[in-house]
C-alpha cells in the first residue's frame, strides 16, 4: 500500500466543502464514482443485493448511491455515514426533494467509528470513496462489525493496479487526489479475510482508463466554461488540474491505478 504524509480527513472535508467537490460532480455526475450508474448496477448484481434489504453506505457523500439502491435495487432502508457536513446536508436536501427521506438516513461521523449498532445491516456498501480513509484496516473492521453474519460487504474503490506505482508517481497522484494512501486488490482481500469475511469477488473492473478519457474529453470539448466558473475563472488553476488529470490518465492506461470491485460475505 502506497502512502503519503500530511493528508488526512480535514483535507478531504475541504475538497467536498468547496469548489473542488463541485468540479468533481460536474465531470462525474451526481454519482461521483468511476462508471456511474453502470458501475452501481454491476456491483448490485454481483453482490446480489436483495429487495427489502437494509444497508449502510460508508463514506456516502451526497447519498447518490443510497438513492440508487432504493430506486433500482428496491432496498428498503439505507443509512449513510460521512464525515463532511456539507455533503451530508446536501444529501438530506436531495432526499427530501426526491421523496426518499423516509427511507434514507444520514449520520455525520467517521466511517471507522460510526457509533451504529453492530450486526444489524444486511449489507455494507461503498463506491470509490474508501480511498479517502487513512485507516483502511479500521474501516474494513467497522464494515465487518456492522453487517449481520451471512451479510455482504460490497464496494468499489480506486486501487493500485497490477503494474504498480513508483514512489514518485504515488506521491504525485495521492497529493492531487487528497488520498492518504491507496490500497491494492490483494491488500483489501487480506483485510476482509482477516475480519472473518469470505471474499467472493476481488477484481479490476477495467473501467478506470476509459472513464478518465471521457472526463478529460468532457472538460476539453464541452465543459470548459462551466469548470472555469466553478474555480473563479482561474485559467492557470484549470491548466494545472488538467495536467494532473492527464497524468492520472497515463497511470490508468499503464495499469498503475484501477477501480477494484469487492464482494465478501461475513462468516
What do you see in this structure?
There is one protein chain. With 267 residues, the protein is an alpha/beta fold. The protein has one domain: Rossmann fold (3-Layer(aba) Sandwich). 46% of the residues lie in helices and 22% in strands. The strands form 2 sheets. A 7-stranded mixed sheet has the order 4-3-2-5-6-9-8, with helices on both faces. Strands 1-7 form a two-stranded antiparallel ribbon. Strand 3, helix 5 and strand 4 form a beta-alpha-beta unit. It is globular. The mean pLDDT is 97.
CATH topology: Rossmann fold
Query: What would the principal axes of the Cα set say about the shape?
Result: globular
SS content category: alpha/beta
Q: N- to C-terminal separation?
A: 26 Å
Summarize the structure in short.
The protein is an alpha/beta fold.
Features:
267 residues; alpha/beta; Rossmann fold; 11 helices; 46% helix
Architecture blueprint of SSEs:
Blueprint: E1 2-3, H1 9-16, H2 19-28, H3 36-46, E2 54-58, H4 64-72, E3 77-82, H5 85-97, E4 104-108, E5 121-127, H6 136-146, E6 147-160, H7 167-177, E7 181-182, H8 185-194, E8 197-204, H9 208-221, H10 224-230, H11 235-253, E9 257-266
Parallel strand pairs: 2-3, 2-5, 3-4, 5-6
Antiparallel strand pairs: 1-7, 6-9, 8-9
Helix pairs in contact: 3-4, 7-11, 9-11
Amino acid at each position: 500500500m502506497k502512502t503519503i504524509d500530511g493528508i488526512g480527513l480535514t483535507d478531504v472535508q475541504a475538497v467536498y466543502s468547496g469548489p473542488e467537490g463541485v468540479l468533481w460532480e460536474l465531470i462525474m455526475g451526481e454519482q461521483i464514482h468511476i462508471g456511474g450508474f453502470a458501475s452501481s448496477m454491476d456491483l448490485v448484481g454481483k453482490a446480489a443485493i436483495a429487495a427489502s434489504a437494509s444497508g449502510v453506505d460508508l463514506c456516502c457523500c451526497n447519498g447518490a448511491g443510497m438513492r440508487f439502491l432504493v430506486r433500482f435495487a428496491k432496498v428498503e432502508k439505507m443509512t449513510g455515514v460521512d464525515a463532511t457536513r456539507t455533503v451530508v446536508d446536501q444529501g438530506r436536501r436531495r432526499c427530501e426533494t426526491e421523496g426518499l427521506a423516509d427511507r434514507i438516513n444520514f449520520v455525520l461521523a467517521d466511517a471507522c467509528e460510526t457509533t451504529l449498532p453492530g450486526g444489524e445491516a444486511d449489507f455494507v456498501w461503498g463506491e470509490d470513496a474508501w480511498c479517502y480513509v487513512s485507516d483502511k484496516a479500521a474501516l474494513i473492521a467497522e464494515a465487518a462489525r456492522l453487517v449481520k453474519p451471512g451479510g455482504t460487504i460490497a464496494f468499489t474503490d480506486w486501487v493500485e493496479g497490477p503494474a504498480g506505482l513508483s514512489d514518485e508517481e504515488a506521491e504525485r497522484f495521492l497529493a492531487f487526489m487528497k488520498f492518504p494512501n491507496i490500497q491494492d486488490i490483494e491488500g483489501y482481500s487480506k483485510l476482509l479475510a482477516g475480519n472473518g469475511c469470505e471474499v467472493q469477488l476481488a477484481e479490476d473492473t477495467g473501467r478506470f482508463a476509459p472513464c478518465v478519457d471521457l472526463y478529460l474529453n468532457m472538460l476539453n470539448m464541452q465543459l470548459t466554461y462551466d469548470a472555469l466558473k466553478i474555480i473563479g475563472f482561474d485559467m492557470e488553476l484549470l491548466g494545472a488540474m488538467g495536467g494532473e488529470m492527464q497524468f492520472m490518465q497515463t497511470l490508468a492506461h499503464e495499469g498503475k491505478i484501477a477501480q477494484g470491485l469487492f464482494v465478501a460475505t461475513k462468516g
